[in-house]
C-alpha cells in the first residue's frame, strides 16, 4: 500500500501524528472538547503521541494551551517548538492544583485527560463553568495493584456544570478523511511538529512498552523491526 504524501523518509508518521494517536487527539479535542477561540485548554501527558497533537491543534484553533509533562526537556520543546503557552512539570511543581491555578488565571475551559488522579483533581478545581473534559485515558492508574482513592472534588462537576465525555477513537473512523486532509496540510506547512522515540528490535518491544509508564518516550514510541 502506498502511503501518501509521506511514503519514504517519514513513514512512521502514520503510526503517530497521522495515525491512531493523531486521530485520537483530533477526535477527542474537536468533537468532545469543543474548544472555542480564546478559551484555555489543559492537556496532560502533553508531549506524548496524543498530547502533543492535542496541544498543537488547540493552538491552531486559537486557544491558550497549558500542558503538563514529566521533564523539563519535554516542557521546553512544547514551549519552543509547539507554541504552548505554559507547561507544568508535574514531577517538580509541588501541589499540582496550585501550579495549575498559577498559570491559569482565567481558569480552564477544556481538559484533555490522559492521566487521571491528581491531574483530574486539579483540572476540576480550576475548571470554568460549562467546562468540557475529553476523557481519553488515565495512564496513572493502569498499573495500580490496589484501587486508589479518586479525586475528592467530584462534586464540582455539578456546580460547574462540567461535561465529561469518554471516547474510544475506533468509534470515530468517520472523522478520519477530514483528519487526514487537515493533518497532512498542517504537517506540510510546519504547523504541526512531531517527536518520536525509536527503539530498535522486536526484543526490545516489551521494555519500550513499559517505558510509556515512566515517561521514557518523547513523543510517539516506535519499535523498529
Ligand atoms: N481513548 C482512546 O481511544 C485512546 C487512544 C490512544 C491512547 N489513549 C490514551 O491516551 C493517553 C496517551 O497515550 P499515548 O499513546 O499518547 O502515550 P504517550 O503520551 O506517548 O506516553 C505516555 C506518557 O504518559 C506519561 N505518564 C506515564 N505515567 C504517568 C503518570 N503516572 N502520571 C502522569 N503522566 C504519566 C508519560 O509522560 P511524562 O514524561 O510527561 O510523564 C508518558 O510518556 C493514554 O492514557 C492512553 O491510554 C486513548
How do the strands and helices of this protein lay out in sequence?
Elements: H1 20-33, E1 40-43, H2 51-60, E2 64-69, H3 72-81, E3 86-89, H4 96-103, E4 108-113, H5 118-126, E5 127-135, H6 156-159, E6 163-166, H7 176-188, E7 196-200, H8 205-211, E8 220-224
Parallel strand pairs: 1-2, 1-4, 2-3, 4-5, 5-6, 7-8
Helix pairs in contact: 1-2, 1-7, 4-5
The structure holds NADP nicotinamide-adenine-dinucleotide phosphate.
The site of NADP nicotinamide-adenine-dinucleotide phosphate has 25 residues, from helix 1.
What do you see in this structure?
- With 225 residues, the protein is α/β, with parallel strands linked by helices.
- It folds into 2 domains: 17-141 and 150-194, NAD(P)-binding Rossmann-like Domain (Rossmann fold), CATH 3.40.50.720; 195-225, no CATH class.
- 33% of the residues lie in helices and 19% in strands.
- The protein has 8 helices and 8 strands; from the N terminus they run αβαβαβαβαβαβαβαβ.
- The protein has helices at 20-33, 51-60, 72-81, 96-103, 118-126, 156-159, 176-188, 205-211, and strands at residues 40-43, 64-69, 86-89, 108-113, 127-135, 163-166, 196-200, 220-224.
- β7 (196-200), α8 and β8 (220-224) form a beta-alpha-beta unit.
- α1 packs across α2, α1 packs across α7 (176-188) and α4 (96-103) runs parallel beside α5.
- It starts with 19 loop residues before the first helix and ends with a strand.
- The protein binds NADP nicotinamide-adenine-dinucleotide phosphate.
- Residues 21, 24, 45, 47-51, 69-71, 74, 114-115, 136-137, 139-140, 167-169, 212-213, 215, 217 line the site of NADP nicotinamide-adenine-dinucleotide phosphate (NAP).
